[in-house]
Each structure stands twice: as C-alpha cells, then as structure tokens.
Amino acid sequence: MATLLRSKLSNVATSVSHKSQAKMSGMFARMGFQAATDEEAVGFAHCDDLDMEHRQGLQMDILKSEGSEEGGEPPLEGDIHYQRDGTGPLPPSASKEACSELSGQGKPKITAWEAGWNVTNAIQGMFVLGLPYAILHGGYLGLFLIIFAAVVCCYTGKILIACLYEENEDGEIVRVRDSYVDIANACCAPRFPTLGGRIVNVAQIIELVMTCILYVVVSGNLMYNSFPNLPVSQKSWSIIATAVLLPCAFLKNLKAVSKFSLLCTLAHFVINILVIAYCLSRARDWAWEKVKFYIDVKKFPISIGIIVFSYTSQIFLPSLEGNMQNPKEFHCMMNWTHIAACILKGLFALVAYLTWADETKEVITDNLPSTIRAVVNIFLVAKALLSYPLPFFAAVEVLERSLFQDGNRAFFPNCYGGDGRLKSWGLTLRCALVVFTLLMAIYVPHFALLMGLTGSLTGAGLCFLLPSLFHLKLLWRKLLWHHVFFDVAIFVIGGICSISGFIHSLEGLIEAFRTNAED
C-alpha cells in the first residue's frame, strides 16, 4: 500500500511539473510558432492549451503512468492518460533522451527580436493585399485609420499583458494568469467564472474559421484572375482548392506544414517588395488627385474592418510574453513592431492605390499585368493553401476541447477512443468543417466583405473592446485618469466602428448571397 501511495504521489508531482513547464514554454519558442502565426487570426489563435501539443508534434499515443518499482503493484485503473497536453507521467520505457527533452521544454526562451519577428509575421500577413481597397473607399481617412489602428492595437496589447499581473502581499508584481481566456474568466468571476473564457473561445473559433474561408476565397480569386482564358469559374477553382485541402481533416501534427509555411512567409515578403517595386516604376502616372478627404459612407465601414483585421495579434500575446527571456522588453518590442507595420502598410496601400486609383481591386495583385500576375498569384495561392491548416487545426482543437474533451462539462461524448485515435464521426465533423469553408467561399466569394465582417466582429472585439474592458475591470483602482480615459475612448470608438462595419458588411454579404443564389 505504501508503495502504491508513493507511486501515486510521484505521478501527481510529475504531472504538475510537466503542466507547469507547458504553461511557461510554448510553440512560440520554436520555428513552429513563427509559421503558425504568419497570418492574422492564426495565430491567433492558438490558446495556451495548444502550446505544449504543437511543440511535441501533437503526440497521438497513449503514455502509461509510471508503475511501481519491481515487484510493486500495477497501476490502478485511471492511471492511463491520453497525453494530448503532455501533463501526465512518462512511461517507464521512455528513453533518457525523451525524458531530458520533456524536462527541458520549460527552458527555451525567445529574445525580444524573435518575439518581434513573430508579431511582425502575424500583422504583416497576406491579408495586407486588401488594404489598397480600403484606401479606395476612404482616401486619406483610410491612411489615418491605418495609423490609428496601429496605435490602438499596440496600446491594447500592452494593457492586455498588464491584466496578467497582480500585486502580491509583499508588494511585488507577479504573473497570476497565463492566457486571454484566464483574463476573461477572472473578469466574470465569481458569478460567472467560465463565461468570459467561453466568449473568447467563440470569438477565436469565428475568427479562425473565417480565416480559413478567406484562404479558400483568395485561392479561387487569384487562380481565376491568373488564367481568365481557361473555362474554369472562380467557384470551380475554389472547389479544386478545397479538394487539395481536404486531407487537413486527417492532420495529427503541423510539423511538416510549419516548415513549408515559414518559407511561404519569406516568399510573401518578396512578393510585397515586387508589388511595391512595380508601383514605384509607374510613379510618373500616380493619380494623387484621386486621394481625397472623403469617404464612401456605404463601403468605408467595411474598410474599417479590413484594416482592423490586418492588425489582429492579441490572442497569442500572453503566451508570447510569457516565453520571452526578458518580459520587460515586451513594451519596446510592441512599439517598434507596430511602428514598422504602420509604415509598411501605409506605404503599400498608398502606392498601390496611386498606381491603379479607381481600378483598384479587392486583391491588389489582380491589378498586375498578366505577364507577372500569374507567377505572383501562384505563389500567393501556394502560401494560402499551406497556411490553411494552421487556423483550421487551431479551430478544431478549440472545438474539440470545448465540446468533446472538457470533462464533465463537455456537451458531447469524447471524439477520441480509448486508444487515442480519432473516432470516425469525429473525422466526419472535421471533413464537414472543411466543406463548410468551401460552401461559404462559393456563396460569398467576396474577399473584402468577408475580411471586413471578420475584422468588425471578432477583430474589433479581441483587439479593441475586450482588452479595454478587462483593463478597467481588473485594474481600475490603480489606473491613472488618462488610462481610464483612453480605455473608455477605445471601448466607445471601437464599439461604434465594430457595429457600423458589421452591419454594412453583413448587408453586403446578404446581397451577394442572394445574387449568387439567383445565379
């Protein structure tokens, strides 16, 4: 009995140790994070519970708890755990190398430069291609909004991190929370201790799924405009793209995808430079008179959502800050990354609009001459297809944990069997999610409308509304008056922009849906 008790205590201690390491280190310390956050929302997108899984390659095996010493009693029923989060004990057969690797997972930290690279990837993704279209409907006000959104998102990112800390009895500032979900739950406690986390999870899922839809839409759009002479419609190209993406339903890890996605991120920066270089070569023909202080009242609110969506990164900032070697450098890192993003986005949007003026299309590469358009668009399609698994897998993980693997609070039976394999009906649901993204892309094939709707709904909520609200709720007694003023102003302005952009985007989508249904 004493041997059994020692074995159980050892298992519990090991489990707690491993879970602590999982919280303190994440996928952001390795290449996998850099690839997983190369787009808005993907990142976004992973909640902290996915960090350990991603680094370990999402091991899909059963790890048995340590047995007692030789001659001891076998483990009791319940000592066998499906290790999707790496929190249980290692099997006795595990090699020393595996043990040392797992025990050292809490050690790797990233520098401020590496953290800045990850944030840059998140807010400088391929959805920047829609910014010139925002200038088309906003003029100089659109440029101002690009700057304003950078300032606000930088500020809300900082106050979101401030919500992770509290002052202890000794007057020291200590980290008491680990994720966006933890902050949301703390704000709703004690009356509704899990409500805030559920709201954040729903926002994550919506943003991730909409990101997947946007990848399918942009793939069909780019291929159709690259080969207009082929008898293949945009809907057909979207179906072809989805057929390529269907194997995502069978994914167990993202290691291989992450390597390719990192290369695609670098290729995307090259493509941006090529577009800017082409625009500069036509500088003599720039239509400065087309950029005015006016707004298209009907379409400019959609532009707000487009701009906000291009800056979304708040969802993964808590994990990123927790894995920095020196968290005190977080504020400086946020400053220079958002300043750089503001300058690059502003220049890209302006020079692209000046080049094509009123002919600016939803995806700016469609304006390029046919001689180089096909090559550039094919690279972008490859990037979109290789980036799709990242938000898709994150959405699947959040859905599975919330609905199928949340213990007694789960709404449905566990979608994994006792051997750790995904059940057939669970696989069917994954395939259905892929098909759903296709149906949305077919019936609403409008990149700008979908991007504006997502930015107005979840982007504004996660980047503007919730951080300012949480900051006021958790730290209002310690805030200076100007912080209170900023938080209230951001909440009000963000709310107005969110509602306006959502209504106009929704109207546009409904109209587009009706048009496609009639066709």
TrEMBL record:
Superkingdom: Eukaryota
Give an example GO molecular function: gamma-aminobutyric acid:proton antiporter activity
Q: How does it sit in the membrane?
A: Multi-pass membrane protein
Instruction: Name its GO BP terms in alphabetical order.
Output: gamma-aminobutyric acid import; neurotransmitter transport
Task: Tell me the Pfam families matching this sequence.
Answer: Aa_trans (PF01490)
Q: Which UniProt keywords apply?
A: Cell projection, Cytoplasmic vesicle, Membrane, Neurotransmitter transport, Synapse, Transmembrane, Transmembrane helix, Transport
Q: Which family does it belong to?
A: Belongs to the amino acid/polyamine transporter 2 family.
- The protein here is known as Vesicular inhibitory amino acid transporter
What is the organism field in this record? Calcarius ornatus
